[in-house]
Specification:
Elements: H1 2-14, E1 18-19, E2 29-30, H2 52-63, E3 66-71, E4 74-79, H3 82-88, H4 103-107, H5 122-135, H6 138-143, H7 145-162, H8 172-188, H9 192-205, H10 213-216, H11 228-254
Antiparallel strand pairs: 1-2, 3-4
Helix pairs in contact: 7-8, 9-11
Length: 257
């Protein structure tokens, strides 16, 4: 039953149809045509409370494993069934692989041309092929094995020092995240002198990656409240300059200059 249901969802998403009107149960269907009226811009935002995962759980218990919400001008399909989610990420991943066009994709990810924001198609498949066969190839990953070993040893040593006085509770999530980030930074930048610049730039970029009201209420984009777009453009400009410097340095080394 679930397989047939998901196939029905996939076919409707592929042909421009979608699950029924906001906050209705999954067996009902209709075509959602046109854009939301301006007077109804908030739509179901008032149905969402914090913490978000509990709010969505409550809605799923009330309306079923599949339901839709209007968040401003965007229609969002919520799936709370593990079985369906697994199939969305495997069997029907092509149908559901396109990404929403947010401001971050335009200003931080080269006008929706990066792997994180590119629409599904020949271009995105080619990017994945390059990353799989070159950037993250087996040989390339092997070349960083010693660096990963050193970072892991440094992590364990620091963890031992912090707990040398006896048994204590340790919050590992942040520590492991930091270690992973250290490894990724060294793989990308390489030069220890440039690592701090790169980290500072990433720290400045991370808060900008979250969704903002302009992504859901397009009218707000005209005013750029809080200077969000301006900050995105500034970070993107400095990021381009930084990465171009790394590329030029690598090219110079390859040519013996």
């Amino acid at each position: 039953v679930w397989n047939k249901l998901l196939s029905h969802i996939a076919s409707r998403l592929d042909t421009g149809l979608a699950i029924s009107s906001p906050l209705c149960s999954w067996p009902q269907w209709r075509v959602l045509a046109g854009r939301p009226c301006l007077k109804n811009w908030s739509r179901n935002i008032h149905n969402i409370d914090l913490p978000l995962h509990r709010s969505l759980q409550n809605l799923a218990q009330k309306y079923g494993n599949i339901f839709t919400l209007w968040l401003g001008s965007r229609r969002v399909v919520i799936i709370s069934s593990q079985t369906l989610v697994q199939q969305c990420l495997s069997k029907h991943d092509i149908v559901l692989s396109n990404r929403a066009r947010f401001l971050t994709g335009k200003h931080l990810f080269y006008n929706y041309s990066s792997l994180l924001s590119a629409p599904h198609g020949d271009y995105s498949r080619n990017i994945r092929r390059v990353i799989t066969n070159d950037v993250l190839s087996t040989e390339r990953l092997k070349s960083f094995a010693e660096m990963r070993r050193k970072e892991t040893l440094k992590f364990i040593t620091k963890l031992a020092k912090d707990t040398c006085e006896g048994f204590t509770c340790v919050e590992l999530r942040t520590r492991l995240t930091n270690m992973t980030f250290e490894i990724m930074t060294r793989m990308i930048v390489g030069d220890a002198n440039e690592m701090k610049k790169f980290k500072d730039m990433i720290d400045e970029m991370m808060p900008l990656l979250g969704n903002n009201m302009g992504d859901f209420v397009p009218l707000i984009r005209l005013f750029d409240f809080g200077g969000l777009v301006k900050r995105m453009k500034d970070v993107a400009k400095r990021g381009n300059s930084f990465m171009q410097g790394i590329i030029d340095g690598i090219r110079s080394e390859e040519h013996g200059g």
